[in-house]
Amino acid sequence: MQWLQVVVAVFYSDLYNVTMDSVLEAPEIETATWLTLAGVLCLAVGMRSMLSAQGRGRVVADIIEVEAGQIDPVRLMQMWVVSWIVATIAEGIGWYVTALHQFLVPFSTMKWVFFFMVCYRVLLLDKGYGMMSLMVAIEFFGGFLGFFSSYKEGLFMFLIAAMTIRRAMNIKLKLAGSLVFVLAFVTSVFWSSIKMEYREFVRASQHRGTVEKALQRLSWLESRVSRMDAKSFDNGMRALVARVQYVTLFGHTISHVPHFEPYAKGELWFGAVKHVLMPRFIFRNKSVLDDSERARRFTGVRFSGSESGTSIGIGYMAQSYADFGRIGMFVPVFLLGAFFGRIYQVAIRNRHSALLGTSVGTAMLFSVLQAFATSNAKILGSLVVLSLAYWMLNKTFGAQIMRWLKRTW
Question: Hey, where are the domains in the chain?
Answer without folding.
Answer: 2-405
